[in-house]
Amino acid sequence: MRVLDTHCDALMKLQVEKRGVHYGRTPLDFQNADMLDTNLKRLRQGKVGTQFFAIFIEPDIPMEEKWQHALEQLDLFHTEVLDKNPQMKQVRSWADLNTLKEDEIGAVLTLEGADPIGNDLGKLRHLYRAGVLAIGLTWNHANLCADGVHEPRGGGLTLLGKEVVHLNNQHQVLTDVAHSTVRGFWDILELADYPFASHSNARAVCDHPRNLYDDQLQALIEKDGMIHVVFHPEFISDRKETVEISDLLRHIDHICSLGGVRHIGFGSDFDGIDRYVNQLENAAAYQNLINELLKHYPEEQVRGFAGQNFLDHMPK
């Protein structure tokens, strides 16, 4: 069963290793580098039909260098992911998802945290033109658009952040709530035509700040937004050292109980995590999750989780 995954950090890993060449590191080969959870070989083994690739800049990068880092990751997306691998096809508009062939893998650009644009909306428009189709205003810390989930004051969107959401609406770009504060989440829900959670779980199941409360999940469902469960063990269970696929299913069960069976998808966070669910250690293992889901849900619903739900709810 083909899968659509709305979050990975492969571009950051590619950049870190390329920048480290002068310090003895070897550039990563996207086709088969063991360090990449989402290398091409593993995507094919796991039957991933569409992978979202985040542009993410580490918080310790000086502000004046962040745009250059974003451009480097954008370049690596083309030189390492697309140009060397003809079966990888950039999805530049949502309609492109419906034209992918069986042997092709769609590659969607996203931005995780608006830090690289500073307060320059010209840079944001550059990213739209480059094909970025989903934007999260923050990572965990504050920037000029909003507070992130770990910012102690817990603020919402700034005027700049609200303008970014309005521009996302105009360009049919998804606004991602995955790293938002509670206040920021509600600001986004009020303003965004296309809100979604690219990689978040249910806080009622695992009480972690990165997860969403029931009223947030219900609000996303009511606004026809998607909720893509994340595979980071820290966001799945706060009670177990070893996390199993069955623990992830508890989040899916809970979201379904809130009426979200048609709003669930996957956002693995592969290449951004260093702990893994047992038997779900990289993209090659995706069918282990599918097979476990088929034991508990009808095939039609599992196909929805795997990607059809997203296709049904994406901007038209």
TrEMBL record:
<protein>
    <submittedName>
        <fullName>Dipeptidase</fullName>
    </submittedName>
</protein>
<dbReference type="Pfam" id="PF01244">
    <property type="entry name" value="Peptidase_M19"/>
</dbReference>
<dbReference type="InterPro" id="IPR008257">
    <property type="entry name" value="Pept_M19"/>
</dbReference>
<dbReference type="InterPro" id="IPR032466">
    <property type="entry name" value="Metal_Hydrolase"/>
</dbReference>
